[in-house]
Design brief:
mainly alpha, coiled coil, transmembrane helix, transmembrane, 3 helices, membrane, flat
Length: about 140
């Protein structure tokens, strides 16, 4: 018996074996994909929990600072209050300056648009004079 005869006699068995192998590979691929998506979901959950823990830690830190400020001396409290007032003043000044700049930019843009429109109007009037003459325009 030669190899060709053996293959031809067992063709159906070989064909089914190949189909089974392909199906098993597809199933393995699907399972692998599911596991990856499950791992990604778990990683996202862990990152969310970590962010929550960080936020809670920051909140606790701020509360501890507030409690610590109760035991501060009056001079230290006054210094902190002065710095806080200075920050508030600087914030208001910054906001005011930002608003002023924004208004000036808007005014500049509107002025530029106005100048363009005037120029266009003059150009149209000139073209009308050239095309229709002075008497028909009135």
């Amino acid at each position: 018996m030669t190899i060709t005869e053996t293959i031809s006699q067992n063709f159906l068995a070989i064909f089914y074996s190949i189909i089974v192998i392909v199906v098993l590979l597809i199933i393995a691929k699907v399972i692998n994909t599911r596991e990856r998506s499950k791992e990604r979901r778990e990683l996202a959950d862990l990152q969310l929990k970590q962010k929550k823990l960080d936020m809670m830690e920051n909140k606790q830190y701020i509360e501890n600072l507030k409690e610590a400020s109760v035991v501060l001396k009056d001079e230290e409290k006054d210094k902190i209050d002065k710095i806080s007032r200075d920050n508030a003043i600087l914030s208001r000044r910054t906001l005011s300056l930002m608003n002023e700049i924004e208004e000036r930019v808007q005014r500049l843009e509107k002025g530029k648009d106005h100048a363009k429109l005037l120029k266009t109007k003059k150009e149209i009037e000139r073209l009308e004079r050239d095309m229709f003459g002075e008497e028909e325009r009135k």
